[in-house]
Amino acid sequence: MLIAAAVCPCPPLLVPEVAAGAAPELDGLRAACLDAVAALAAARPERLIVAGPAEQAGRGAHAQGATGSFRGFGVDVEVRLGGAAPGGGAVGGPLPPSLAVGAWLLERAGWDVSPVEGLGVGEPLEAERCIQVGRKLAASAERVALLVMGDGSACRTLKAPGYLDERAAAFDAELARALAAADTAALAALDEQLAYELKAAGRAPLQVLAGAAEGAGLKGELRYDEAPYGVGYFVARWA
């Protein structure tokens, strides 16, 4: 059963070494993310799953101990998901960037509450399939928590990665409302095509959350809602 969830954005710029001179601009976002992770820890789950968008090579499950790095973003920073692998077992391939950011947050927070697993979710995964995946995750243990990594639209300004799209503000506003209200039906109903056109990288993992949280009776709290680089960044806590 899902007992808690946190939603955080996944830009590598969250890592100060990647952001370099611009790092202070996201200090408030980092603090909100770490507070959200602390709330997950306070829930004392027996299993934590970090879910985030992934390209083909990073899709699927990633065991505790899987590594990722930010060398592709110009810095020699490596992270490990949830610490060392239990028993020194195999951990599979490298983490996709979204899960690497999640692993970095867990390291910064000193996560030691429960075993950690990663799930890379492909952007094309249909909504109903995402919801089914979430339901299975929630049923996998009595006390499950989710850390969902994902951004809103990337089209909020002229300088945004996807340029300005007049539909982006309304899309992000509805997403923010759904996160604040822990509205699983609204997340499940996110328009896949529109999310794709607006380059909203969080659509699929958020719909995994929608499936996992069905019937859990969680209450939401939105802690951050900004678009500092023309990309919708949200931090929410569900408990």
Describe this structure in words.
This protein starts with a strand and ends with a strand. A hairpin with an 8-residue loop joins strand 4 and strand 5. The longest helix is centred in the first third of the chain and has 16 residues. It is globular. The mean pLDDT is 95. The protein has a single domain, classed as 3-Layer(aba) Sandwich (Protocatechuate 4,5-dioxygenase, Chain B). It is α/β, with parallel strands linked by helices and 239 residues long. The protein has eight helices and nine strands. Strands 3-6-2-7-1-9-8 form a seven-stranded mixed sheet, sandwiched between helices. Strands 4-5 form a two-stranded antiparallel sheet.
* Overall 3D form: globular
Unreliable segments of 5+ consecutive residues:
none
**Helix/sheet category:** alpha/beta
Percentage of β-strand residues: 15-25%
Question: Alpha-carbon distance between the termini?
Answer: 12 Å
Q: What's the total helix number?
A: 8
What number is the mean pLDDT? 95
Biggest sheet: strand arrangement: 3-6-2-7-1-9-8
- Main β sheet profile: 7 strands, mixed
Written as H for each helix and E for each strand, in order along the chain, the element string is EHHEEEEHEHEHHHHEE
Please name the fourth-level CATH homologous superfamily.
Answer: LigB-like
Total domain units: 1
Q: What is the CATH architecture assignment?
A: 3-Layer(aba) Sandwich
**Helix amount, in percent?**
25-40%
Number of strands: 9
CATH topology: Protocatechuate 4,5-dioxygenase, Chain B
Rounded to an integer, what's the Rg over CA atoms?
A: 16 Å
| CATH domain class name | Alpha Beta
